[in-house]
Amino acid sequence: MHRIAISFLLAAFLVWLSACEAPRATPAVTLKPTAPPATASPAPATKSAETPGAGARPTTPPSLPTAAPTPSPAPKPSPKPATPAPTVGAEPGPEPAATTRPPPPAPPAPSFLKKGETLPAVAAKSGRRSLDFTFLWWNAGDRAVSPVLGRNYTFVARPGMKFIIVSYRFKNAFNVEEETPDINAGTMLTLPRGYAYELWMTPSPSDALYRVHESLPGEVAVLGATTGGSVKLLPGQTADGRVIFEMPAEMSPVEASLSRIPERITFVDQSVSQTVPATPAPGPSAAYLKKGETLGAVAARSGRPGLRFTFLWWSVTDRAVAFSQGANYTYVARPGMKFIIVNYRFTNVSGAEEDTPDVNAGKIVTQPRGFSYQLWLPPPAAEAQSYRVQPAFPREVVELGASSGGGVRLKPEQSADGRAAFEIPAEMVPTEVSLGGIPAPILLTE
């Protein structure tokens, strides 16, 4: 009984001793603000005191166990920023595709030469860039003039085809003599199909594909006959030339490239050019002079361009009036023949007196064979017997005319009428007339 009492007292002493030492040995528990204050439970302390056997003393003073704080709820993970969906076609990588890269530089716009513009520094035959090249005008028509063995011939386009004539001018802009280059190659682009056609080369005059006749002076003056190449020019001198393209009639020219010319020629947004450059208004609207149209700056007998020429009308008849031996006579056409009478007017537009030129040469072109006939002149007495001749009635003189209107002296603003007569086979149809001294042919078809 005494041992039991001593053991009970000893156990009570140990419990008291542990209770006295716990505040000094146990560190203070720091609790989070969000957690409620922890309360130590006495049960664990009692259990730790009873664990050693009877009479045993722990080597280190036992401490009260720290109560586990109430666990705070785990913080919710912050949402990650949404990743943008990849752009279709974008390159992988941190940079957005094509948004921060500068666009590629645009290709330079092609350079074109328009009607009336001049391109400097064109190479001459010497290789020096000493020539100025000017695009003068262009024209669409059914014929072209080209030299063959020293003579000029007019080629009528093949059926369903047409000619495009491009006229230009070389000028020597250097201080020594230069020779113009030969333009012997070129290409023309057309619409609506984008087809290209090469430069037209002169065929033989006997080529059966073309109707050919010897050129009239007016055709050469209006349409041109050479490319203007291999011409020697002194400083400041000029030489005109032309190139020809043949294409289907339904095609429209867009642009042309010529050898030795570094820029292309454009025909877009331009109407067909007047074929007589710098002609004062009123003037022809195309290469040919039509009924009622006026051609300015026609040379008078003095050589000065002081006259205006107007195509009045034309007629088909079986007779013509001519002045012969001091009187007017009417000539009746020979059997199977007929007369074409072309009437015109000269007007003095200069500030001085001028004499009208003598229209004593000319040619008429006919269909369907393309034959041409010379200007009709009153026959000499030996040949007059092939005609029926009679004195002209006043009305015949008024209606048909009796003279060419040449050699008439005109004061400023005065005018003089004249006529040209052609005798052709009755089955032939006249198409055009060229008169000496008149730079544009006259069109007789509508």
What's the gist of this structure?
This protein has 446 residues and is mainly β. The protein has 4 helices and 27 strands.
Total helices: the number is: 4
Number of domains: 2
Major sheet summary line: 5 strands, mixed
Give the strand tally.
27
The CATH C-level name of the largest domain is Mainly Beta
Compute the separation of the termini in Å.
159 Å
What is the assembly state of the chains in this entry? single chain
* Uncertain runs: 25-69, 270-286
Report the helical percentage.
Answer: 10-25%
Query: Based on helices, strands and strand pairing, what is the structural class?
Result: mainly beta
| CATH architecture title of the largest domain | Sandwich
Strand adjacency order, main sheet: 1-14-13-8-9
Describe this structure in words.
- With 446 residues, the chain is mainly β.
- Helices cover 11% and strands 36% of the residues.
- It has four helices and 27 strands.
- It has helices at residues 2-25, 42-50, 217-223, 394-400, and strands spanning 112-113, 118-123, 129-141, 143-148, 151-156, 161-172, 178-179, 186-191, 196-198, 211-214, 232-233, 238-248, 252-258, 264-266, 294-298, 307-317, 319-324, 327-332, 337-348, 354-355, 362-367, 372-374, 388-391, 409-410, 415-425, 429-435, 442-443.
- The strands form eight sheets. The protein has a five-stranded mixed beta sheet with strand order 1-14-13-8-9, with no helix packed on it. A four-stranded antiparallel beta sheet has the order 2-3-6-12, with no helix packed on it. A four-stranded antiparallel beta sheet has the order 15-16-19-25, with no helix packed on it.
- The radius of gyration is 55 Å and the shape is elongated.
- Mean pLDDT is 77; it is low at 25-69 and 270-286.
